[in-house]
Design a protein that fits this description.
Blueprint lengths: L10 H9 L2 H16 L2 E2 L7 H5 L7 E5 L24 H14 L10 H5 L2 E5 L4 E2 L11 H13 L6 E5 L1 H4 L11 E5 L16 H11 L12
Parallel strand pairs: 2-3, 2-5, 5-6
Antiparallel strand pairs: 1-4
Length: about 230
């Protein structure tokens, strides 16, 4: 994987101790072999894209995903997001349907959510890599320890945050969050299998902005995706 990752923001300080731990060295070794032997998504330079785009102190909202899209050209390091020109995956299509119902925003022309990330929405998957065509293939190799630490350190922050947890797996991270200080918006996952069981109608975008405004923080312009 080359040199140890360097974050061009305050994640470097926040995660410095984590990057020196044995589990992280083991994860790096595992990833070197995976990228050498298999097709792995996202591309190596996009593994930490969410953290590079959204600093620790800049984060206002966290949208937690599971692992990256495992189809060609889809994953680019942001949960639920795809690059410009890539057809919308079903979950993202449903996210945009709910965005329109919640805030009256027309469906964005692109599934690229970089604009959210640049406004302080941390689009974090709990597992940051996957073999092509094999969802969940990089579970249990250290990513969970890495991202649990990120969630816990955000969850311990003094400034109020919004955690958006979609689906059972994301909801399992709730114990890492100080819910007396932060807002947790939890619902079913936006996938076609579960969206009609509580995701549609959950109004996460307006609820997140109402909380931010209540605490004197700027709302997210959810219509500005790129």
């Amino acid at each position: 994987m080359g040199a140890r990752v360097l974050f061009q923001n305050d994640w470097q300080r926040v995660l410095e101790d984590v990057l020196a731990q044995p589990f992280y060295e083991a994860l790096r070794t595992f990833l070197k072999e995976e990228y050498r032997q298999y097709t792995v998504y996202p591309k190596m330079h996009d593994l930490y894209r969410a953290l590079h785009l959204t600093g620790f102190s800049e984060t206002r909202v966290i949208i937690l995903g599971q692992d990256p899209y495992h189809g060609p050209g889809q994953a680019h390091g942001l949960s639920f997001s795809v690059p410009d020109g890539v057809p919308l995956p079903p979950s993202l299509k449903n996210i945009f349907i709910e965005l329109s119902a919640d805030l009256g925003i027309d469906e964005p022309s692109s599934g690229n959510l970089t604009g959210w990330a640049k406004q302080g929405v941390l689009l974090l998957n709990t597992i940051l890599s996957v073999r092509a065509g094999q969802p969940g293939s990089h579970r249990g190799h250290g990513w969970e320890t890495f991202t649990d630490t990120i969630i816990a350190r955000l969850g311990a922050r003094r400034e109020p945050l919004v955690f958006i947890l979609w689906g059972r797996y994301a909801l399992s991270k709730r114990p890492l969050i100080d819910t007396s200080r932060h807002l947790v918006i939890a619902s079913a996952h936006p996938s076609p299998l579960s969206a009609h069981r509580g995701f549609f109608g959950s109004r996460p975008f307006s609820r997140a902005n109402a909380f931010l405004l209540q605490h004197g923080l700027s709302p997210i312009d959810w219509g500005k995706t790129t």
